[in-house]
Amino acid sequence: MKILNAALIACALTSVGIAAAEARDLTVVSWGGNYQDAQRKIYFEPFAKQLGKPVLDESWDGGYGVLQAKVKAGVPNWDAVQVEAEELALGCADGIYEKIDWEKLGGKSKFLPAAVSDCGVGAIVWSTGISYDGDKLKEAPTSWADFWDTKKIPGKRGLRKGAKYALEFALMADGVAADQVYTVLATPEGVDRAFKKLDELKPNIVWWEAGAQPLQLLSSGEVVMTSAYNGRITGLNRTEGKHFGFVFPGSIYAIDSWVVLKDSPNKDAALDFIAYASKPDNQSQLPQYIAYGLPNIEAGKLVPEKYQAELPTSPDNLKGAITLDVDFWTDNSEALTQRFNAWLAQ
Amino acid sequence: MNRSELNKRLVSLMLVGPLFLFLVLFFAVPLVSMMKSAVSDPVAAEVLPATARAVSGWDRSSPPSDEMKAALVADLRQIGEDQLFGDLVRRLNSAKSGFRTLMPKTRAAALEAGGNIDLVALDRRWADPSYWQAVTVATSSTITDRNLLAAVDLQRDASNTIVALPPDASANKAIMIRTFVMSLTVTLACVLIGLPFAMITASVDGWKRQLLLGAVLLPLWTSLLVRTAAWFILLQDRGPINSMLTYLGIISAPLPLIFNRTGVIIAMTHVLLPFMVLPIFSVLIGIPKNLMPAAASLGAHPVRAFLSVLLPLSLRGVVSGALLVFMSALGYYITPALIGGAKDQMISSVIAYYATGAANWGMAGALGLVLLAATMILYAIYLRLSSDREARP
Amino acid sequence: MSNPFIRLEEVSKSFGALTVVEGLNLEIGKGEFISLLGPSGSGKTTILMMLAGFENPSHGTIWAGGRRIDCLPPHKRNMGVVFQNYALFPHMSVSENVAFPLKMRGFSRTEMNGRVGKALDMVQLGALADRRPSQLSGGQQQRVALARALIFEPEVVLMDEPLGALDKQLREQMQLDIRELHRRLELTIVFVTHDQSEALTMSDRIAIFNGGKIEQIGTPTNIYDHPSTQFVAEFIGETNLVRGSVQGTEGLTTRVQLQSGQEVLVELGSNRLPKGNVCLSIRPERIKVGRGKISGNIITAVISDVVYHGDHLRLIAKTDGQSIVVKTDRSQPALSIGEEVQLFFLPTDCWVVGP
């Protein structure tokens, strides 16, 4: 019984949390896989040296309830966490994050406007789109319509398990223009249309949850195409010599942010860490490992030319791509997720 | 009662004290808090007291009155704590999508400007009675059956009668039934494999018994996640099983073993098998060794001796093993999530979504409660059946 | 035996390197009550297991009622077995237990009910038919086991120390009950026990086992009065073993000089003893104590202990380092420790049990 476990963990966390509050080192939480490997190299390890104390890092797969439970338990056992835009908005409204001191970061004007919030600092601009194994697929897909076309390219497809992204992609596959997607999705008919389109592909979908999973599914040949995060694709191509492709038109980009959980015992160190990770010199090293766009404007300029072309923020890649509508998902996430889960179960 | 007897009682109480405390802390308290979170709904009534009074006389269909709006603004100005406001927003938004953006916007406006605010001018949604209906329902009572109803795919409509949720909105009932069906299948598979295995283990001794018991116990010492991951590797399209079958020429295309029911049942059966084998084994080794020879000497063919003596006697182990396996299977989460497809998820994945994903603890509690109730009913049926058998002359 | 019902011919049984039964020949007549008596590990239970079919002989053949049975599985041998710990089926009621052999033989329900009722009445358990074995006392359980083993009218009933788990009083009662059943139903019973008094009271014949072989076989009187070996003499009843050397034979009596130098006469019937060392067995109850002169053999000894046993007295007398136990009735005049006495016994009361 999950709830029981959660309650047990909460009990245990409270007691352990109180006991360990002083002893625990700064704990930074990110999204795992080769992305976190890169972060460890350029952020966590150098910062630990500068701090003179170890920095612990953990990974998670999202879920607002996880953060909320940690804060409500009293003393959270995580300090700095990288969250998606929706979790940032929810948590900021609920007051489960510490407020950001922008002076420490050099002022709001140094960052992309979308990366600035009261409770979080943008960490990356990342894109979700179609990816495929260039070595295995003769004809590369170019659109979500191709993704849905199992005659043209037979085989299973991977999609992230959740209403978010799946509904947008389904509408694009059904012929909705990229910039019209959220207008259509805001109507009940639009939602029905998206689910109907998903029905078509349902037997061929393998659902994934953690960001590293689609890479494994592609590598093992379990799927021929999958939605994936662009940075991990280029990262894998560089480190393992793969030829995975990523389709930017029709992709959805969003900003992930660093937040500090409310009442964190390492609050100051966590804020220092965020400032360290946001410095142009440090942040500009990320694209050589993993092709994510940088929210610090100065850092973006420092990225060498050869990496620029792979970033979601490059002008060519922005063509035909849309930004995630955070407001839409903050309002509709619960209802649509419920319907999505019901749809999955049928 | 004399003094020494009292002392003795105190000492014995102290001995069970830690156990009692443990039970209260880690069993009773979480259980009660789960039940409470499933039905308690105090936040709106507490945070919006003026609004609650103002909407109590409203007919729930006419346009919202100015008095209601003023009360809401006044209440919003009173809320000091962000987390409390967050709870309110979450509560309202789960009844009607849109409050997530609407409420912070309204609160910000209310705090910025003094006096009366034109809510409809601020956001047109405040003219829509359905938002006010949500507020009315939320503030009307501090306990609710909303979560419990939703856990079995029901809801109250505008006229407060219980109706079914639209079929595409919720599938809790279907998932609950699936959970029971899958658990039963796993239990059955465990009986079919575990009973002969336990019988063979009990019939041999020395190193052979150690080996067979080790084969059962060893997986127990490995983490569930590792075992599940191992099955993931074994079962995939290009995994060892499919590769071998293809190599042997038995199949031409890989068997679909992963991301479907077959894979989940295989992996769960393996993971839960020890809980079947061990109870049966312990019952079997308790059966006197001379019963089978006795049956034979009385004229029973070995098959009949097995059916009429050994099998009925091992049934007690089978029943307790089946209970253990079934109850554990009900709560399975990781194995279906990794090995199953979308149609093989069990109720705990839904509970996990509400708890960790949506932070909707009320709904998570309600689903847990329904699962608990269903399990208790099954357990009661089992007790009834087994006591009937015992009582039989 | 002219027409034995059961015959074991040259039967051996070994488990790996361990030989438990060696070249055994045994014949059992119809309606006979034979006890297999011996210390544990002497092979008596293995014989029973081979008769029942739970063990197969390594060598040799077993015949019963003219059929060779050593190749038959147990359920086809039609032998009733009563086990040491009863082996009742715990999940069945008393009547179900007793009905089990009939059920296996496909009896009709009405016939089964009639027979079960009779069988339970025979062991006086009619009132407890619906109880579970766990609700019965040890003696009651044993009677159920007996009823179950007898209900299908087996040709032979094998009993493996059936009374071992009962207390003394109950055991004696059951001994009488079993004897009574044996007589009334004319059963052939093979009874394994390590309790010599049980064997003596119940059996028609006793086979004494030692180290996988039969040491002696005969009627209880024969075995008690004329043990053929030292082992049998000591195992059955209590005895005094006295060593000496043969001096000469005159008619039916042989003169034997004991180690103490005293001479005794031994009357062996037709047997003649060669010269050399012998071991004599004298039962304690055959020896009398006196101060005066009485006929027969006389040994002078010194009383070293007097033990009171309620119904009799037991004297321990020492002569030249050897203890001699004497059982006397309580009419014996009081003796004190250290007193010199003369022990009398008849030449027919000593028996040569070996060199």
Automatic annotation (TrEMBL), chain A:
Pfam families: SBP_bac_8. Keywords: Periplasm, Signal. The keyword Signal applies. The keyword Signal applies. InterPro entries: SBP. Residues 1-21 form the signal peptide. CDD domains: PBP2_polyamine_RpCGA009. PANTHER family: ABC TRANSPORTER SUBSTRATE-BINDING PROTEIN (PTHR30222:SF2), SPERMIDINE/PUTRESCINE-BINDING PERIPLASMIC PROTEIN (PTHR30222). This is ABC transporter substrate-binding protein.
Automatic annotation (TrEMBL), chain B:
Its main location: membrane. The keyword Glycoprotein does not apply. Keywords: Cell membrane, Membrane, Transmembrane, Transmembrane helix, Transport. The keyword Transmembrane applies. Gene3D superfamilies: MetI-like (1.10.3720.10). Pfam families: BPD_transp_1. PROSITE patterns: ABC_TM1. Residues 176-382 form the ABC transmembrane type-1 domain. It is found in: Cell membrane. GO terms for cellular component: plasma membrane. PANTHER family: ABC TRANSPORTER PERMEASE PROTEIN, INNER MEMBRANE ABC TRANSPORTER PERMEASE PROTEIN YDCU-RELATED-RELATED. This is ABC transporter permease. It comes from Phyllobacterium pellucidum.
UniProtKB/TrEMBL annotation, chain C:
It catalyses: ATP + H2O + polyamine-[polyamine-binding protein]Side 1 = ADP + phosphate + polyamineSide 2 + [polyamine-binding protein]Side 1. GO terms for cellular component: ATP-binding cassette (ABC) transporter complex. One of its GO terms (biological process) is quaternary ammonium group transport. GO terms for molecular function: ABC-type polyamine transporter activity; ATP binding; ATP hydrolysis activity. SMART domains: AAA (SM00382). Residues 6-236 form the ABC transporter domain. Gene3D superfamilies: 2.40.50.100, Nucleic acid-binding proteins, P-loop containing nucleotide triphosphate hydrolases. It is an enzyme of class 7 (translocase). Keywords: ATP-binding, Cell membrane, Membrane, Nucleotide-binding, Translocase, Transport. It comes from the Bacteria. InterPro entries: AAA+_ATPase, ABC_SmlMolc_Importer, ABC_transporter-like_ATP-bd, ABC_transporter-like_CS, Mo/tungstate-bd_C_term_dom, NA-bd_OB-fold, P-loop_NTPase, PotA-like. Its EC number is 7.6.2.11. Pfam families: ABC_tran, TOBE_2. Belongs to the ABC transporter superfamily. Spermidine/putrescine importer (TC 3.A.1.11.1) family. The complex is composed of two ATP-binding proteins (PotA), two transmembrane proteins (PotB and PotC) and a solute-binding protein (PotD). Part of the ABC transporter complex PotABCD involved in spermidine/putrescine import. Responsible for energy coupling to the transport system. This is Spermidine/putrescine import ATP-binding protein PotA. The gene is potA.
